[in-house]
Design a protein that fits this description.
Strand content: under 5%
Number of strands: 0
Number of helices: 15
CATH topology of the largest domain: Serine Threonine Protein Phosphatase 5, Tetratricopeptide repeat
Order of helices and strands: HHHHHHHHHHHHHHH
CATH class of the largest domain: Mainly Alpha
Shape: globular
Number of domains: 2
Radius of gyration: 20 Å
């Protein structure tokens, strides 16, 4: 009976983390008040690569064009024409322009796919790392129910592997690879091992520490999660997401007062009205 209750509790928490992770990454530019930084927290749903749908650059661009203004569409079309007529190094230069423009418009999938083309044409640890980071951003920004999420996670995983194959010392690539594995692109414990290696070498690596804390919550290791997030807040920096996940871990252990304090700290640091409303609902539940 207790095991069933605990399993249901973890399922609810994972669903909540996926929602909040999406809010954080989707609204990252407006989330933190001035002079504060926030980490991009990967969403916490597990995915497999076997059922990842195929995605072409044309499909990604066409889908994104339906979500931007007419003026922006004209700019993209002009850049596409320049890309299609270019050759050699000039083609990569035009691809980079398209990647930047799509990123400015906050559409990470076509941006990442242009960076992937650049990396394939001019393979280097730097070019593959750039593609991997953008694919991971696309994963973070894609709703959990969208099947393309598995595709961009898989592409991020491959990109980071390619970066490490060229230069195994690139710590950001190892971090990214660990994040993709923890999120479903492989055996989770292998991802944890990689992230632990990163933290051992770079104790203040925010992305690695955040994902270790999130995995602890997902696996029901709430005490470990509390220790991890308190360490992040004390030694790296108190961000709204770090305080939120700390509050989640406290709440899961029935420590209401500690959870309320952490939620309030998260609320103080965020400027996102949607997230503030979400926190207020959590506080109202705890204060009943």
């Amino acid at each position: 009976m207790l095991n069933n209750i605990r399993s249901k509790q973890v399922i609810i928490i994972v669903a909540m983390l996926a929602l909040v992770g999406f809010l954080f990454t989707r609204e990252i530019k407006g989330l933190v008040k001035p002079k504060e930084d926030a980490a991009q927290v990967p969403a916490s749903t597990e995915l497999t690569n076997s059922n990842a749908p195929q995605l072409s650059l044309e499909e990604a661009s066409s889908t994104a064009k339906n979500l931007i203004s007419v003026a922006s569409t004209k700019e993209i079309t002009a850049l596409e024409n320049a890309y299609n007529s270019a050759s050699g190094e000039n083609k990569n230069a035009e691809a980079n322009k398209l990647a930047k423009k799509w990123d400015d418009l906050e559409h990470a999938i076509p941006s990442a796919m242009y960076l992937e083309l650049v990396a394939k044409n001019q393979p280097s640890s730097t070019s593959w790392l750039a593609a991997g980071d953008r694919f991971l951003k696309a994963f973070d920004n894609t709703p959990e129910e969208d099947p393309v999420r598995a595709t961009v996670l898989q592409k991020a995983n491959v990109s980071f592997k390619n970066a490490l194959a060229i230069d195994s010392t690139v710590i950001d690539a190892k971090t990214g690879l660990g994040v993709t594995i923890v999120n479903g692109a492989g055996a989770p414990m292998e991802g944890i091992r990689l992230l632990m290696q990163v933290v051992a070498k770079d104790p203040k690596n925010l992305k690695a520490n955040m994902n270790l804390g999130l995995f602890a919550i997902k696996s029901g290791q709430f005490d470990k999660a509390i220790t991890r997030f308190k360490d992040i807040i004390s030694n790296i920096g108190g961000t709204p997401d770090a305080y939120f996940y700390l509050a989640t871990a406290y709440e899961s252990l029935g420590k209401k007062n500690e959870a309320i304090d952490a939620y309030l700290n998260s609320k103080k640091l965020t400027a996102n009205p949607t997230f503030i409303k979400f926190i207020d609902s959590k506080l109202a539940e705890l204060k009943k």
